[in-house]
Amino acid sequence: NSVFQGRSLLAEKDFTKSELEYLIDFSLHLKDLKKKGIPHHYLEGKNIALLFEKNSTRTRAAFTTAAIDLGAHPEFLGKNDIQLGKKESVEDTAKVLGSMFDGIEFRGFSQKVVEDLAKYSGVPVWNGLTDEWHPTQMIADFMTVKENFGKLKGVTLTYVGDGRNNMANSLLVTGSMLGVNIHIVAPDSLQPTQEVRDLAEGYAKETGSKNMITSDVDAGVKGSDVLYTDVWVSMGEEDKFEERVNLLKPYQINMDMVKKTGNENMIIMHCLPAFHDIETEYGKKIDEQFGIQEMEITDEAFRSKYARQFEEAENRMHSIKAIMAATLGNLFIPQA
Ligand code: CP
Ligand code: NVA
C-alpha cells in the first residue's frame, strides 16, 4: 500500500514536505500523460461526491474532469440539493455518503465541517476550499512555480492583498513547508494571524524559507520571482466590500508593481476568479456603486507576458487528479 492510500487532504499540514513534493511531481507526470493522450484510469469504478456550499468554476470543473479521466464517476451535490448541516447533521450525511462514495470533495465555509466529513464518512475527503485553507490549489500553484523556475527551493513568492484569507494562509504555510520564500504584503489589519504565522515559522525553520510579512509594498515585492494576488473580498464576506477596497488600493498588482520586483523573469499568478474586467455583470455593478474599474490586478498586468494564471488554472485538473489517484488509487508509491 502507498503511504497516501485512504488519507484525506483537509489542510496542507496533513502531509509532509516530501509527500507534497511527490504530489507536485505526480501532477506533472499526469499532465504529461494527458498531453500525450495516454490513458490513466487509476480510479476505474470509483464514485466521487462533489459537495459545494460555495460557488466554483475551477475546482468543480477540475474535480469533474479529473475524475472522468481517471475512470471514476463524479456526482455534484450543491448546497440546494442536499440537507448538509441544515435538516441533516454533517455526521449523518457523512455516514450515508461514505457508504456509497469512495471519496468526497467538500467546498464550504467551515473547516470543522470538512474535518467532520472525514471523521464520519470513513473515506478520503478533499478540502476544495474553506474559509481557512485551499490545499488542492497549493499543489497546482507550486506545480506551476516548478514548471516556470525548474525548482521550488529559494524561489521568492510574494502575495499582495488580503493577507488573512484562505489563499494567504495556504501560501504562507505551504511555501514554508517547501522551502519557498513567502512574502505577505498587506495592510496591518489584514496580515496573517499569529496562529498561521507560528505554523509557517515552524516549517520555515526546517526548510530555510525566508519569509517576510510587511505592509511596505516596495520592500515586500523587491526581488520577487512571483507576484501573487487574490480577490479583495472572498466568498461569504461581501459586506466588507467598501472597507476592503479602501484598505487594499495600494496593494494592486499593476505594471508599476511588476517593475518594482526588479526581476525581468518574474511571473504573475492568481488563483482566479479575478476582478479586472468591467464588462462582467459584477464589474458593471461595482463600477456603478464604487466607481472602480480594476481591483486586485489591472487588466494590463493580467494580460501581460508575465501572467501565468491560466496555466495555473489548468494545473488544478492535473493536480487534483494526482491527489485523488494517490489517496484513493491502488498505486504503489515508494515511501519518500
Ligand atoms: N481557484 C479556485 O478555486 O477557483 P474556483 O472558485 O472557480 O473553484
Ligand atoms: N479567497 C477566495 C478564493 C477563491 C478561489 C475566496 O475564498 O473567495
UniProtKB/TrEMBL annotation:
<dbReference type="GO" id="GO:0019240">
    <property type="term" value="P:citrulline biosynthetic process"/>
</dbReference>
<keyword id="KW-0963">Cytoplasm</keyword>
<dbReference type="InterPro" id="IPR006132">
    <property type="entry name" value="Asp/Orn_carbamoyltranf_P-bd"/>
</dbReference>
<dbReference type="GO" id="GO:0004585">
    <property type="term" value="F:ornithine carbamoyltransferase activity"/>
</dbReference>
<feature type="binding site">
    <location>
        <position position="166"/>
    </location>
    <ligand>
        <name>L-ornithine</name>
    </ligand>
</feature>
<feature type="binding site">
    <location>
        <begin position="134"/>
        <end position="137"/>
    </location>
    <ligand>
        <name>carbamoyl phosphate</name>
    </ligand>
</feature>
<dbReference type="Pfam" id="PF00185">
    <property type="entry name" value="OTCace"/>
</dbReference>
<feature type="domain" description="Aspartate/ornithine carbamoyltransferase Asp/Orn-binding">
    <location>
        <begin position="153"/>
        <end position="326"/>
    </location>
</feature>
<dbReference type="Pfam" id="PF02729">
    <property type="entry name" value="OTCace_N"/>
</dbReference>
<dbReference type="InterPro" id="IPR006130">
    <property type="entry name" value="Asp/Orn_carbamoylTrfase"/>
</dbReference>
<feature type="binding site">
    <location>
        <begin position="271"/>
        <end position="272"/>
    </location>
    <ligand>
        <name>carbamoyl phosphate</name>
    </ligand>
</feature>
<feature type="binding site">
    <location>
        <position position="230"/>
    </location>
    <ligand>
        <name>L-ornithine</name>
    </ligand>
</feature>
<feature type="binding site">
    <location>
        <begin position="56"/>
        <end position="59"/>
    </location>
    <ligand>
        <name>carbamoyl phosphate</name>
    </ligand>
</feature>
<feature type="domain" description="Aspartate/ornithine carbamoyltransferase carbamoyl-P binding">
    <location>
        <begin position="7"/>
        <end position="147"/>
    </location>
</feature>
<dbReference type="InterPro" id="IPR024904">
    <property type="entry name" value="OTCase_ArgI"/>
</dbReference>
<keyword id="KW-0808">Transferase</keyword>
<dbReference type="GO" id="GO:0016597">
    <property type="term" value="F:amino acid binding"/>
</dbReference>
<feature type="binding site">
    <location>
        <position position="107"/>
    </location>
    <ligand>
        <name>carbamoyl phosphate</name>
    </ligand>
</feature>
<feature type="binding site">
    <location>
        <begin position="234"/>
        <end position="235"/>
    </location>
    <ligand>
        <name>L-ornithine</name>
    </ligand>
</feature>
<protein>
    <recommendedName>
        <fullName>Ornithine carbamoyltransferase</fullName>
        <ecNumber>2.1.3.3</ecNumber>
    </recommendedName>
</protein>
<dbReference type="InterPro" id="IPR002292">
    <property type="entry name" value="Orn/put_carbamltrans"/>
</dbReference>
<feature type="binding site">
    <location>
        <position position="83"/>
    </location>
    <ligand>
        <name>carbamoyl phosphate</name>
    </ligand>
</feature>
<dbReference type="InterPro" id="IPR036901">
    <property type="entry name" value="Asp/Orn_carbamoylTrfase_sf"/>
</dbReference>
<dbReference type="InterPro" id="IPR006131">
    <property type="entry name" value="Asp_carbamoyltransf_Asp/Orn-bd"/>
</dbReference>
<feature type="binding site">
    <location>
        <position position="316"/>
    </location>
    <ligand>
        <name>carbamoyl phosphate</name>
    </ligand>
</feature>
<dbReference type="GO" id="GO:0005737">
    <property type="term" value="C:cytoplasm"/>
</dbReference>
<dbReference type="GO" id="GO:0042450">
    <property type="term" value="P:L-arginine biosynthetic process via ornithine"/>
</dbReference>
<comment type="similarity">
    <text>Belongs to the aspartate/ornithine carbamoyltransferase superfamily. OTCase family.</text>
</comment>
